[in-house]
Design goal:
Blueprint: H1 5-15, H2 35-58, H3 60-64
C-alpha cells in the first residue's frame, strides 16, 4: 500500500539534512551588548510585533460596523 503524499513528504523532510537556522558558536561574543541596548532591542521587537495586533483588537468594534 503506497504512503500518502503528506506522509512521504514528512519522511523526506525528516531525513533531509537542513542547514542550521541559527549560527551557533562556542566562541565568546565579539562585541558585548549592554543592558541598555538589550532593553531598546526588546522594546522595538515588542512594539513591532504587538503594536499592530493591539491596534486591531482595540478597534475591533469599529471594524465590525458596516458603513
Amino acid at each position: 500500500m503506497p504512503l500518502p503524499a503528506a506522509s512521504r513528504l514528512l519522511r523526506t523532510a525528516l531525513r533531509a539534512r537542513v542547514a542550521p537556522v541559527a549560527n551557533i558558536s562556542s566562541k565568546p561574543a565579539k562585541e558585548n551588548i549592554t543592558a541598555g541596548e538589550q532593553t531598546i532591542a526588546m522594546t522595538v521587537m515588542f512594539i513591532t510585533i504587538l503594536g499592530p495586533s493591539g491596534w486591531i483588537l482595540a478597534h475591533l468594534e469599529d471594524y465590525k460596523k458596516k458603513e
